[in-house]
C-alpha cells in the first residue's frame, strides 16, 4: 500500500531532509529508520520538498510504499512514539499506488520569517532570522513584483545544474506581525537555495544597497554572483505542498 | 529612578530566576550583569515571581533602581542588545520610588501545558509536558474545585517553612487545544513547587489513581508526602503578574 504522510519538523539540529551517505542525521533518515524497524524491511520515503540543513517544515508531504497490516492510525502512532520530539507526523493516509509526493506536487509555499525585534520572539526565536536594520518595505515589494512569473532563476540558484532552472513564482506576500516581517513565497517549485537568495536580495533592496528596478536585469544575467546574500536557514519554513 | 520591566524568557537552560552564589546561570543574574555594565555600578533587580529552574515566563515583572541618563527606550534597547536570545525585555517604564514588583503584586497567573499529543507540538515542545495517558477531565475539574479558595497549602509545598503557607487560589481553568490540555492557575501567590505539585495531583486524579473527593482531606493533612508527584518544570509558564 502507498501511504501519504503530513510531517512537521524543527530542522535546527538536522542536516536537512534528504538521506545522505555521510550522516544519519537527516529527517528522511530518521523516519525511514523507524519505518524499517516497524516493517522489518528496508524502506524508502519520498519527500515533496528536499529542505536544506536547518530549514523547518509545517507541512512537508512524503509518500512511502509499505507492506504492513497496521492501520494508518497505528502507523502514525508508531512513528510518533519512536521519532524524536522535533519531528511530528500529523497524518497518514492511504493513496493510489501511483501517487508520488514530489513528482505530483504542483505548488509549494515557503515562508521566511525576519525578526525585526528579536526581543519579541523569545519562544519562537529558532524559526526567525534576527535582522534589526531598518528596511524600506515599499522598495522590497517593488523588487519582489519583478520576481513573480515564469523566469529562468539561475541567478538565484546556488548550484550549477544542467537541468532546467526555469520556475514559476506565483506570489510573494509581505506580512507584518509584532517584531516580525514575514515573506511568503508561492510557486510551482524552487531551486537549491532559491528562496534564501531571493530573500537576501530583497533585504539588500530594503537596506538601499540595491535598486528595486535592477531585478529584471539580475534575472537576465543568470549569474548567482550578481544576486544578494544567502539568508540563514533558520528563518525558512516549508509551509505547504499543493496537489491538483 | 525606579523602573519596571516586563520580561519574557525561555527558562529551559537557566537555573531559575533568582541569583545564586553558586552559579551565574540565572535570569536575574543575566539581567543584572547587563544593567551593571550599562550603569557602571552594582545593580539589584526584584522579580515578582521567583520561577524555578526550567520554568518559563510570558509576563514576569521586575523593578530596579537605576541612576542613568538613558531613556526608558534606550534602557530596553541596551538590555535586548546584550541579553541572550532566550530573554526578552518587552517594556521598561518609570515608576514611583516605592513600587516593588514582588511586594506590591496582588495576583499571579501561571499556566501548565500538557501535551496530550506531542506530535502536534514540534515547535513549542519545550514548553509542554508530554503526557499521553488518557485523563478523566471531569474528575480533574472536580478535584481542582476543592483547591479554590483560601487554604493552608503546606501539602503542596516542597519546602518546610516557618512562614505562612496560606494562599488564596482564585481559579483553576481547563482549556483544550489540539493535542494540548492547558491548566491555568490564578491566585494571590504560590508556594515553592505548589503549582507543579497541584498539577501532578490533578493528573493522578485524571488517571484514576486518586479520588477527586480526597482533596479536602489532603489539604487538611498539611503533609507534602500525601500529595501527588511534581510535574516537570518545562510545562510551567508565569503568564502574568497583577497589581492593584
Descriptive overview:
The structure is a homodimer of 244-residue chains. Chain A has 244 residues and is an alpha+beta fold. In chain A, 23% of the residues lie in helices and 31% in strands. Chain A has five helices and ten strands, in the order βαββαβββαβββααβ. The first copy, chain A, has helices at 27-39, 72-82, 137-147, 194-206, 215-221, and strands at residues 2-9, 45-47, 56-65, 87-95, 105-115, 129-130, 149-152, 166-177, 180-187, 236-243. In chain A, a hairpin with a 2-residue loop joins β8 (166-177) and β9. Chain A binds chain B through residues 8-10, 56, 76, 80, 83, 85-90, 117-125, 127, 130, and chain B through 8-10, 56, 76, 80, 83, 85-90, 117-125, 127, 130.
Oligomer: homodimer
Judged by helices, strands and strand pairing, the structural class of chain A is: alpha+beta
Rounded average pLDDT of chain A: 96
| Proportion of beta-strand residues of chain A | 25-35%
Number of strands of chain A: 10
Distance separating the two termini of chain A: 21 Å
- What shape does the CA trace of chain A take? globular
So how many helices of chain A? 5
Helix content of chain A: 10-25%
> What's the gyration radius of chain A in Å?
19 Å
Quick one: which chains have the greatest interface? A-B, 24 and 24 residues
Q: Which parts of chain A are unreliable, with pLDDT below 50 for 5 consecutive residues or more?
A: none
SSE series of chain A? EHEEHEEEHEEEHHE
Largest sheet properties of chain A: 10 strands, mixed
Amino acid at each position: 500500500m502507498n501511504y501519504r504522510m503530513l510531517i512537521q519538523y524543527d530542522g535546527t539540529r538536522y542536516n536537512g531532509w534528504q538521506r545522505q551517505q555521510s550522516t544519519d542525521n537527516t529527517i528522511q533518515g530518521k523516519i525511514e529508520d523507524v519505518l524499517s524497524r516497524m516493517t522489518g524491511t528496508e524502506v524508502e520515503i519520498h519527500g515533496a520538498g528536499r529542505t536544506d540543513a536547518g530549514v523547518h517544515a509545517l507541512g512537508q508531504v512524503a509518500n512511502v510504499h509499505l507492506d504492513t497490516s497496521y492501520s494508518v492510525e497505528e502507523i502514525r502512532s508508531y512513528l510518533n512514539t519512536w521519532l524524536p520530539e522535533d519531528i511530528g507526523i500529523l497524518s497518514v493516509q492511504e493513496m493510489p499506488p501511483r501517487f508520488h509526493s514530489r513528482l505530483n506536487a504542483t505548488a509549494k509555499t515557503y515562508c521566511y520569517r525576519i525578526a525585526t525585534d528579536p526581543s519579541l520572539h523569545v519562544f519562537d526565536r529558532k524559526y526567525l532570522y534576527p535582522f534589526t536594520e531598518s528596511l524600506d518595505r515599499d522598495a522590497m515589494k517593488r523588487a519582489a513584483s519583478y520576481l513573480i512569473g515564469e523566469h529562468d532563476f539561475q541567478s538565484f540558484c546556488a548550484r550549477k545544474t544542467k537541468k532546467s532552472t526555469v520556475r514559476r513564482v506565483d506570489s510573494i506576500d509581505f506580512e507584518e506581525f509584532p517584531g516580525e516581517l514575514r515573506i511568503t513565497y508561492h510557486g510551482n517549485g524552487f531551486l537549491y537555495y532559491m528562496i534564501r537568495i531571493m530573500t537576501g536580495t530583497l533585504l539588500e533592496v530594503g537596506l538601499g544597497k540595491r535598486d528595486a528596478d535592477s531585478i529584471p536585469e539580475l534575472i537576465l544575467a543568470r549569474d548567482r554572483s550578481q544576486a544578494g546574500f544567502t539568508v540563514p536557514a533558520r528563518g525558512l519554513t516549508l509551509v505547504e505542498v499543493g496537489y491538483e
